[in-house]
Amino acid sequence: MISAGIVTYNPDLVRLRENIESVKNQVEKIFIVDNASKNIQDIRSLSSEFHITLYDFSENRGIAAALNKLVELSRDEGYGWMLLLDQDSVSTKGMVEKLSRHIDMNVGIVSPNILDRNKEYKTKDYENKEVTRIKTAARKSVITSGSLTNLHAWDKVGGFDENMFIDYVDYDFNERLLLNDYKILKVNAAELIHECGSAKRTWLWTPRKESNGQWRLERFYSFGHSPKRCYYKARNRIYYSRKYWFDVWNKFEGIYQILPQVLLTILFEDRKSEKLAAFCRGIRDGIDMPVMKYESHNR
């Protein structure tokens, strides 16, 4: 059985309704966990309208805690797979059915193709329709939103790491799935409409290698993240690298991504001084915070 889970935090109610309406006929039940939104009464009304199980935290406990709560609620009702969604994501028609064709106990996540509503896409970018096996946790990997997640695998690898609060939470989870020999699959024919920050088009073009091995130039879009998010971007990348150094030291993941993030922020972002200060605090705290190096568990 497949359920869907949505994490909310001060959501745009029009977009949240669109999210719910797009997925309600594709799964058996929807759960929402709210992180102390100011518009919680509106979320309650919407949940009641669509017969959604709502659990609201009394404080913002972060994305990882909310995701773990969603999975716990779903497992308690007997579901084995859960489609995890951000509050502003919209599932395309038949997406869940396309993903569900590939579920297996050796698979940890089945993910769709992500279409960012802030970016321009051309049909030729998505001509490659086969299923791709993802072998890296962060770089060119899958995000939480749209991921059809094996709840047995979630339990075996220890769930989402609540020390991270927000940012890189999905990649940390991916890393543990891969270390425990679970497959991560991307179904290129299934598509999810998503919004990554407040991205804006820039003049910069960067080379990108597609899953079919071909290279193409892709327009770079600014991140549009807040200073608070910049703090967690730096802190959690260092935390991640310290936690999995034995596996990620030779990959362009974690700590190696901080300098490019800072340089691109200087080039293209507003509130530069605030964001640079946040990056510095994140680097400091990422070095200082306690971390337990991860060891994979035998399934």
Mean pLDDT across all amino acids? 90
Major sheet size, sense and barrel closure: 9 strands, mixed
Distance between the termini: 22 Å
CATH superfamily of the largest domain: Spore Coat Polysaccharide Biosynthesis Protein SpsA, Chain A
Q: Summarize the helix and strand pattern as letters.
A: EHEHEHEEHEEEHHEEEHHHH
Please name the CATH architecture of the largest domain.
Alpha-Beta Complex
Number of strands: 11
What is CATH's topology name of the largest domain? Spore Coat Polysaccharide Biosynthesis Protein SpsA, Chain A
Shape: globular
Number of helices: 10
Radius of gyration computed on alpha carbons: 19 Å
Please state the structural category. Answer: alpha/beta
Instruction: Give the fraction of residues assigned to helices.
Output: 25-40%
Q: How many domains make up the 3D coordinates?
A: 2
Low-confidence stretches: 122-126
Question: What percent strand?
Answer: 15-25%
> Class of the largest domain, according to the CATH hierarchy?
Alpha Beta
Walk me through this protein's architecture.
By secondary structure, the protein is of the alpha/beta class. It has two domains: 2-194, Spore Coat Polysaccharide Biosynthesis Protein SpsA, Chain A (Alpha-Beta Complex); 227-288, no CATH class. 36% of the residues lie in helices and 24% in strands. Strands 1, 2, 3, 4, 5, 6, 7, 8 and 9 form a nine-stranded mixed sheet that branches. Helix 7 runs parallel beside helix 10 (272-288) and helix 9 (258-268) runs antiparallel to helix 10. The longest helix is centred in the C-terminal third of the chain and has 17 residues, at 227-243. Residues 122-126 have low confidence and may be disordered.
